[in-house]
Specification:
By secondary structure, the chain is α+β, with helices and mostly antiparallel strands. It is built from three helices and four strands; from the N terminus they run αβααβββ. It has a four-stranded antiparallel β-sheet, with no helix packed on it. The N and C termini lie far apart (about 70 Å).
């Protein structure tokens, strides 16, 4: 029986792997990208804003409202439970509040700043930057491209 189960599992895993796509990332659809190079001139550790406090307050209010048909002890317990649950979910959703602000000197002498949660780069490193913005294309009259 174990051999049959192992065979079925192996077939299932191969089938799923065979369906895996090696195409382009869908997040890049309708994006225009610019690639350029820069050198890191400064790295500063920063803190991202957090909504944990707001989530805890909202959870507390919902907990109190949910227990409003009970006595005051039920309402207090509901408020505490709501604050803890909503606050915890917010912490999990946000992840780390630590970020890094990278100052960069671009090869055309521009200075730019990139804020990210990544911390594997150091001052002096040369980096490739891909900057993407939403793009839309539509067919145009040929005269608009006559000078190209």
């Amino acid at each position: 029986m174990n051999t049959l189960r192992t065979g079925i599992l192996t077939f299932f895993m191969i089938s799923i792997t065979g369906c895996a796509s090696t195409g382009h990332n869908r997040d890049l659809k309708d994006q225009i990208s610019e690639i350029f190079y820069a050198q890191i001139t400064n790295v500063e550790k920063i803190k991202f804003e957090s909504d944990v406090g707001k989530a805890a307050i909202a959870g507390s209010l919902i907990g109190v409202i949910e227990e409003s048909d009970g006595n005051s002890e039920d309402m207090i317990a509901g408020g505490i439970a709501g604050a803890l649950v909503w606050g915890l979910f917010s912490v999990i959703a946000e992840g780390s509040n630590t970020g890094y602000s990278y100052s960069l000197k671009v090869n055309d002498n521009r200075n730019i700043k990139i804020i990210t949660s990544d911390n594997y780069l150091a001052v002096g490193d040369c980096v490739e930057i891909t900057s993407a913005k939403k793009a839309h294309m539509k067919k145009s009259q040929f005269e608009n491209c006559s000078l190209i």
